[in-house]
Each structure stands twice: as C-alpha cells, then as structure tokens.
Amino acid sequence: MSILVVGSVAFDTIKSPSGRVEKELGGAATYFGLCASYFTDVRIVAVVGEDFGPEQEAVFKKRNIDLGGLQRSAGKTFHWGGEYGENLNEAKTNFTHLNVFEQFKPQLPASYRETPFLFLANIDPELQSEVRRQMNGTKLVGGDTMNYWINGHRAALMETLKLVDLLLINDTEAKMLAKETSVPRAAQKVLAMGPKALVIKHGEYGATIFFGDGSFKGIGHHPFRAPTLPIDEVKDPTGAGDSFAGGFMGYLAGQGKVTRETLKRAMFYGGVMGSFAVEDFGTRRLQNLTRDEIEERFQIFRELTHLD
Amino acid sequence: MSILVVGSVAFDTIKSPSGRVEKELGGAATYFGLCASYFTDVRIVAVVGEDFGPEQEAVFKKRNIDLGGLQRSAGKTFHWGGEYGENLNEAKTNFTHLNVFEQFKPQLPASYRETPFLFLANIDPELQSEVRRQMNGTKLVGGDTMNYWINGHRAALMETLKLVDLLLINDTEAKMLAKETSVPRAAQKVLAMGPKALVIKHGEYGATIFFGDGSFKGIGHHPFRAPTLPIDEVKDPTGAGDSFAGGFMGYLAGQGKVTRETLKRAMFYGGVMGSFAVEDFGTRRLQNLTRDEIEERFQIFRELTHLD
Question: Cβ A233–B202 below 8 Å, yes or no?
C-alpha cells in the first residue's frame, strides 16, 4: 500500500570530521521518502523554492516518488547549515534559513486523501493535525516531533498525539515529553498521551518499540529492540532518524498490515536504512541502493543479534 | 569447569532515588561470584577485615562459593559510599575507605592455581598481572579495569592486557583506553592491545562483543550485541557491570568451552544477571535467584530481540 509523507525538503550545508558538503539535498521528507521508496509507493507533500531544479527532481523521479503534492513557491528552499564534532551524536546548527518553508501550508491533492499510510514528519504540530484531518480512512498514521515543539508548543502537540498511531522519537525527546528521567517510564507516559505504539530511537544503540494498553489488537505488551550496526566511520549522521522512520513505515506500508511480526521486521528495516544513511553525506547512499543490498544488511543485523 | 575471581569484597553505603542502604555487602568479586555461582563452581580471592562476620560469610556459603582464598586482615573491610541522582548512569562517590584493601596482595592457595577460568576484576593492573602469572594452564582469562587505571597506570595496564583473553569494559572506558571517539574504532584499537575479544557494555542499551584478527579459532569477525531489559525502576545500578561479567564468564566456565555459540549465549546471560542486579539494593536480588528465574528472563531477552 502507498504511503504519504508530509515534511521538509531542504538543502543542507554540513561539516563533519569526514568532510564538508554545500547545499546537499536533504530534509526529513526527502530522507524518509527515499528510504520508504525501496518498500512501497511514496507520495510527498512539501514545499520548495525556485532553487529546486531538475537535478533535485531527478533524485525523486529515479525512485518513482510521486511529487504531485510538492508545492513550488517564489523564493528559496529551506536551507540548514550545521556541523558535527568528534561526538557525532550532537549537531551544532550554524544557520537555519526557513525561506519558503516558513509559510508552508500543506495542501493535499484530492487523490492523496485516501492514502492508507501517512507519516507526519517533524513540522509544527498544528500542521500535522491539519493534515491528519484532511485524510480519509487512513489505516496507519506515524509521526515525529522534536524538542522545539515539545517545549514551546506542548498543547498543540498533545492534540496531534491523539491523532497519531505510532510515534517515533529519540531518548531525549521521550524523556522531555514525559518529564521523566527513565526511558521505560517515559515510554509508558507517552503512550498514555495517545499513540498505540512508541518507537524510541537510541542513536548508535538501536531502537525500542513500546506498546501501551490500548495498542494494536493482538500485539502484546512486550517491547522489542532492534540494533544498529557498529559502523567504524559515520560520515554524516544527518537524517538517520528520518531514514529509520522511512524504512520502518515504508516496510509496514509495503506489507499492508500491522502485526507484531511486521512491526518487528519494520524495526530492523528502520535500523538498516539508518545505517546506510550515515555512511555518506546527505542522501547520497540512499539514492542508489538495491533491494539486495538492503536484504544483505538485514541479514547482518540478524546475525548481530540472534542466538541461533 | 570452575572459575576463580580476584577482586574486592566490600561494604557499600548507597543512596538512590529509590532509598538508602548502609554497609550493604558489595564489591566486584561479590557481585561477580554470586552471579557466576548460578552457572558453575566459584572461588574467590579477596581481602576482608574484622567487620566481615558470619552474616556476610553465609551469603557466599549459601551459593556454595569457595572462600579458601579469602584473606582476613586486622582492620576494617573496604567501604564505599556513593549516591545516584535521577540520572542513574553516574554515581557520585561520597567516600572511599580502602581500609584492608589498600594492602591487598592476592595470594592464591596452591589448589587454586590450575582453575581453568579466571576473572581479574577491577584492581591495580600490576596485581592483575601478578595473579595471572601465579596461574598454571588456565583456559580463559577475563579482565576488567576502570578510568583510574587507564589514565594513571597505563603502562602497567598495557602489560595486563597482553595476559587477558577477554576484556569487559564500558563505552567510556573503551574510548579512553583507545583515545578514540567512536566505539567501533575504539574496539579495534583495544583488540590490538592484546585481548582476543572485547565486550563493551553500553549501560541500559546492552553490550557488544567485538573480535580481533587474532581471536579465538573459528569465531569469525562479526560483532554480536545483547540487550538489557528496559526496567521501569532501577533501584540501585551498583555492581551491574560486575554482575554482567559474572553471568558472562560464569556461563562460559559452566559450558567449559569458548565458541561463537557459547559466547553469544554468555552475552545474554551477562545481560540477564545485570538486569537482576539493579532491581534491588546491593546484591540482594542476586542472593536468592533460581535457575528457573534466570531461564525465564533469558527467554524475555530472546523475545525482546529475535524476529522469529
């Protein structure tokens, strides 16, 4: 089944211990869409400026990603600049030029409104809720958020969380959202806010999915943990979380059903796509993968964690 | 096969958000020995003072731990005082009274010298090397160390690392020892210092075992990662690492052989024992476990991580 992602398409200028790139194609919807495209049909709703040209378009086209919901506005595309020191877990933002993204009002083409799987990437929770309400008969809604919305727009975010089936955030965000210091306790509090399941990403240590009382039917209460690959050289961690979400949600959409089995595999595919993302700058590694390469890495993840 | 552990037996006075205990039985050799005792015969070489009485002795006796190598000195037993804030990953030391431990010179009873498995808990690397040299025909030597020795006694530690088959340390220690910021890169550098395999403990995220070029025969080069349980309430994290080591080495000794299969299961049993350790203060939870409880938790660890 197809999946719709609403979020940012952007340019990133990134410095890391492995080098530097200028105006590299990025943005949450880009990372997410490319990763999901290896598993299912992808539609993107986003906004770009006049500097988004055929070169960038070709990246999406090559992966058969539907750009019918891509708005083109006068002005420049969202441009983020950041750098990573030796501690690759934390980015230092050098600049954030929102440009056309500042006035982003997601408009869903009529043909998009019944897309069975929806992912609300990290944007203003009010916009996330608005998009959700434009949809009809959606089967599964995934969502992301960040510290900025958790701290400054809590009320709006609480409304969004009631509309989201699956929330994907990291340790710090989960603790901040729940006002808790223990991750497992934070998970239970966040689940009480609405989502049926919560994926907490642990950076280089993988991710855990937690289930609440009102979770998917027949899913059970036991959490499940997927690893990431211990990678010697992480070139650029930008977009690793969005890539995880793309692999995770894309796999679920491709399978068309949410069971304990598909969720567990989705966690592995999320980790797999995140591990590819960080191997090169921007989305480079994600543009030319093959399903064979993905399956091969899936097997490495299995061997990394399985006893038998 | 039996295992010998050389390290500290101590009293701990601990405060955590869950409460406070005074002069609770602790020390690396105690945690290690109790955990290993569920898998094999355990011998302890340590030193205690006059305040170590029948009550403490009974804890070891109940687990059939051989105290023939326990030295009794005039004075008081090593006493550590520390506390944990909401961030349970870091202890704040309130006092360290080394007492009789300050003059600890491990003396191995003649009958101990051919014990097939040996664990050198976190003590002065010069003493670790001395113990190793007192042993004859040992099959496998495991070791631990800490920041204090890594920073202040590097030369002595480098000598010890040549005598150790398996080193168990945490992320911070591995990075410090290798002078590296990436864990996988640090792992390769530490393996080049001598050990055949390196277990890096990631606290609440589990642990990874890495193998070097000159590793155990037929072991392969792929790392293996075991989880820990997401525990809602960690009462007291003291000794979690020593408990991991006790489960890990104890299981290997019980099996009597080091293969990829036994190492993988040992990683799981390490995590299992660590997860029990933190559920109550000191070694309380570790004194009265059953093999059934251990196997049950092993299955929970399996379900937490396995696809099928």
Answer: no
Using an 8 Å CB-CB cutoff, list chain A residues near B184. 230-232
Contact A2, A116 (CB under 8 A): yes
CB contact under 8 A, A188 and B231: no
Helix (H, G, I), strand (E, B) or coil at A197: strand
Per-residue pLDDT tens over the stretch A201-237: 999 999 999 998 878 888 888 999 999 988 888 999 9
Using the structure block, give the residue that is written with the tokens 């869903």.
Answer: A108
Beta strands in A8-127 (DSSP E): 10-16, 19-26, 42-48, 66-72, 79-84, 91-97, 117-120
CB contact under 8 A, B307 and A302: yes
- Please answer yes or no on whether B205 and A206 come within 8 Å at the CB atom: yes
Q: Are the beta carbons of B225 and A305 separated by less than 8 Å? A: yes
Query: What are the chain A neighbours of B268 within 8 Å (beta carbons)?
Result: 307
Residue B205 distance to chain A (closest CA, Å): 6
pTM (2 d.p.): 0.94
User: Nearest residue of A to residue B180 by CA position?
Assistant: A86
Q: Which of A210, A230, A264 sits opposite B183 (nearest CB)?
A: A230
Q: Which residues of A touch B223 (CB under 8 A)?
A: 230, 304
- Report pLDDT digits (tens) over A249-288: 999 999 999 999 999 999 999 999 999 999 999 999 999 9
Rounded to a whole number of angstroms, the CA Rg of chain B reads 18
Q: Which residues contact B67 (CB under 8 A, 6 or more apart)?
A: B44, B57, B60, B61
Of A231, A232, A264, the CB nearest to B307: A264
Provide the b/e sequence for A8-24 (b: ≥16 CB within 10 Å).
bbbbbbbbbbeeebebb
Residue B36, both tokens: 């290993």
> By the 8 A CB rule, do B166 and B180 touch?
no
Instruction: Look up the ipTM and state it.
Output: 0.91
CB of B23 within 8 A of CB of B79? yes
CB contact under 8 A, B302 and A307: yes
